[in-house]
Design brief:
By secondary structure, the chain is mainly α. It is built from 5 helices and no strands. About 70% of the residues lie in helices and about 0% in strands.
Length: about 130
């Protein structure tokens, strides 16, 4: 495994963000939703860069966490794009209603598993490498 300061983490981050977008874009039903989802990896990277500057860390040291978040969210949707698209269609047709009134999202349980697993792995990696 590469060291946390390795430049390979920038490549891994780009690939993680690309996978996130590749899995989420087909589930979105309009341009507004796609634009909102496209901001996710960018905002996540900005948060990681801000954190690294405030706490005087190298930005590359936080990239494993960034990759973990992108991968966890992307893999949390695998197999559920159709259900997510149904939910996003409902959101478009019912903009003022709370999310709990809409169709159930089976991806939520999968994400509830993938997020802690990937974040735990990322924090373990940072601590050990």
């Amino acid at each position: 495994m590469p060291d946390t300061s390795s430049p390979l983490w920038w490549l891994f981050a780009a690939l993680s963000a690309a996978l996130f977008l590749a899995l989420y874009f087909p589930a979105m039903v309009n341009g507004r939703q796609k634009a909102f989802m496209a901001c996710g990896p960018v905002v996540g990277l900005l948060v990681a860069l801000a954190y690294s500057s405030v706490y005087d860390w190298s930005p590359a040291e936080l990239l494993p966490v960034y990759c973990g978040i992108c991968l966890a969210l992307a893999l949390g949707l695998v197999g559920h794009q159709k259900a997510m698209r149904t939910f996003m269609t409902w959101r478009q047709e019912n903009p003022g209603k709370p999310d709990d009134e809409g169709p159930d999202g089976p991806w939520v349980l999968q994400m509830a598993f993938t997020i802690p697993v990937f974040l735990g792995a990322a924090f373990w990696y940072i601590g050990n490498y």
